[in-house]
Structure formats: structure tokens, C-alpha cells
Amino acid sequence: MFKYVPQKFAPETADTEEEGDRWLAGDKTARRPPELITRDEVARAITREVNEGRGSPHGGVFLDIASRLPAEKIKKKLPTMYHQFKVLANLDITKEPMEVGPTLHYFMGGVRVNAHTQQSQVPGLFACGECSGGMHGSNRLGGNSLSDLLVFGRLAGIGAGNYVNGLSNQPNIDESQVKSIISSATNILNRESGTNPYLVHEDLQDVMNSYVNIVRTEEELKTAVEQLQRIKQDAAKVKAKGTSQYNPGWHEALSVGNLLIAAEAVTIAALIRQESRGAHTRVDFPGERDEWLKYIIVISKNSDGSMKAEKVERPEPPKELADIAYAKIEELESS
Predict the structure, then answer these.
(1) Which of 9, 25, 6, 28 is nearest to 17 (CA)?
(2) Residue 335 — pLDDT band, cuts 50, 70, 90?
(3) What is the DSSP annotation of 179-225?
(4) Are residues 59 and 87 in the same domain?
(5) Range of the domain at 7
(6) Which of 46, 69, 100 is the last residue before a domain boundary?
(7) Mean pLDDT score of the chain
(8) 14 with 252: CB under 8 angstroms?
(9) How far apart, in whole angstroms, are the C-alpha atoms of residue 108 and residue 105?
(10) Cys-Cys crosslink for 277: which of 124, 138, 223, 314, Cβ 3.0 to 4.6 Å?
């Protein structure tokens, strides 16, 4: 990992394994080992190692903590990880290395909401946490998703309460829309035959993993857009057997449509953003571009139901937030 440390993280990252080991042992004068820099950097490093033929048997790399820490300390500090590998992989991480690889972990984009009320563009619909646009920009720091949910969940609750209290009368429901939604859901159960929702989901996973992974190119992203249109056709005719009660096949069929929306939004936005920033890496556009710091990609629906993507200039943030965002880590630690 030492050769993959970006210059911006070099001052706070160990130069040698010996220094990294001292940090693990609690030495306050030592700097942390390079495998603990931000997850996007680690993911890119793993991907490069695999692509250059140095990966582990299953397409990842080996993470070895068995040779770095005593067994009892590993069990105490990483009880969940120890249990998961023991039960699911029959592997004791206190004795041997584990295989790890990059995968989808957290959405940095989401539903566009009002920063103060968390209300979306749809009146009366509020969103918070991972499903909303959020505060993370292009890269979420580890450990802050719960505080994000608590802070913005509270704002959403207050916003929803104020919205309801401000209504002069009860909103009317469009019965034709309700019937249309029910019909589209139950058609999956009622049609005589159709595609298997589990196979459609697997196909979607394969396409996204192959063409919209950690490291991206224009050619691969365009291929993904084409493949997603093909999968849409299969998803439109999925068939689930049985009734609506306790039917995981039906639930899978219903979720495939939502997964496709998210997949297409991610792919189109990645194609438009011609730079590399945070968790988004374009081989054909390496490095961050100052121009793109001014823009976000907004996804919406056209009148015909197709997806529309726009490059929108974002408003300037309040000064106190901008000062934090552009501050150096030394300034933040000393203030």
C-alpha cells in the first residue's frame, strides 16, 4: 500500500511497516498505516493490484492482521469480523489472512432535498440518511453514517410535522394512480409466464460489476447504458409464482425495477462526470478537475418516463461551511 499513498495523505501516513506497527501498538508519535487511508484510495489500490495480476484467488487481495496483533486483541477489537469469517468462511482471522475486495458500500448521492426541512421535490415526501443527497460529497468518511441519520432524521421529522400542521385541508388522492400502481404490482403475480426476477437481478449485478465498478471508462459506461436498456425489457415481464402473502419472489420482482432506476442514474451520472473524485474514478479523466467542483449531476424524469440527466451548477455554500470544507487537516485539528 505504501506506493499508493496520495501526496495529500502522506504527512499523516506511516512510511514503513515498523512505524505502522507502532501506531497499532498505541504509539502516539507514530502515524497510521497506509491501509487505513480513505476507502476510495484503498479500493483503487486493490483494483489495480488485481488488474495487474497480483490479486488473490477470488479477485481481491489478502488482508493480514493475524501477524500484526495478538489473537485476543483481534477478537476484542473486531468481534463481528472474527465471527463472520469464522461462521461464513470457516476462516480464523487470528491465524490466517482474509480475502477482501472493493464493493458497493454507501450511496453518496440520493434524493434531492431541502437542506433544512429534508423535503424532496415532491410536496409532502421527505428523505434522510443514505437515500438522500446528503452531506458527504464524493466520499463518505468512515463511522459517520449513524450521526448523519440521527441529525437529518430529526430534521426530516420536524419538517414533516411542520408540513402536516401547515396544511389547510387533507390532500386528495388520485384514485387512478393508486389503481395503476396496484395493477402493475399484481400483474407480476397474475401473468401466465415471464422472466425469473432472481435471474434478472443477477444479470443486473453482473453488468454493474463489469462496467460500472470502482474504476470506470467511457466505453464501459456506454456499454452499461446499452445493457441496462436490455435488462429493462426483461424486468418489465418478470413473473412471480404464488400469492402476495409472504412471497420473497414477488418482493424480488418489485425491487428489480427500483434497482434498475438506481443503476441507470449512477451509470449516466458517472458518464457525464468527466473527472475522478472520491469514490468515482475515470481512467480516461484522471484526477480532480477544478471546474467540476462547481457542478452536480441532477437526475429527473422526462414526460415520457425516460431518465434525464443535467449538469447543474451548485450554489455557493455558507461561508462557515466553505471554510471547513477547504481547510487543511492541520487547521481543523488545531482549531
Answers:
(1) 25
(2) low
(3) HHHHHHHHHHHHSS--B-HHHHHHHHHHHHHHHSSSEE-HHHHHHHH
(4) yes
(5) 2-100
(6) 100
(7) 91
(8) no
(9) 10
(10) 138
